[in-house]
Amino acid sequence: MSKPVNPIPDGYQSVTPYLTVEDAAAALTFYQQAFGALEFMRLTMPGGKIGHAEFTIGISHFMISDEYPNAGSTSPTKLGGTAVKLHLYVDDVDASFAQAVAAGAVPAMPPADQFWGDRMGVLIDPFGHQWMLATHVEDVEASEFQSRMDAMFAGHGDCE
After folding, report:
1. pLDDT per residue over 143-159, tens digit each?
2. How far apart are CA 16 and CA 31, in angstroms?
3. Domain residue spans in the chain?
4. Angle (nearest 5°) at CA 110 between 105 and 114
5. Alpha-carbon gap, residue 90 to 72, rounded angstroms
6. Was domain 18-155 assigned CATH 3.40.50.2300?
7. In what residue span(s) does the VOC domain sit (predicted)?
């Protein structure tokens, strides 16, 4: 009798981000330098582009490929931006932010303490993906979130 197959492979979570970029090989190098990513699988297409690769940052799995617009896979740079943000918890957001900028990321918002209890900064990687780096610095009761947000926006009018 054969062992049943786990419907979610060991080491994976229910949701795995799949990134599409113009140069997946360069992106993998950037993610290694910026975030300490570890690549563990790469499939190369005829012609040299990456058809599929997988890597981890901490305990989180990611998948990545070069863009293939004819197959519906387009990078953020071709789309003019991305609607998806990747939130990455780190031990020291200021050090990690500086490391990512040194590796080539563009700062969009420097690290600052946020009302929900995280110190967070936002970066755009060289491939158009937006990363929110954060370190949790304060446990805030969920019942306090709305009043803290209201206080932050007091006097700012409509923020849309």
Report:
1. 998 999 999 888 776 66
2. 16
3. 18-155
4. 130
5. 33
6. no
7. 11-136
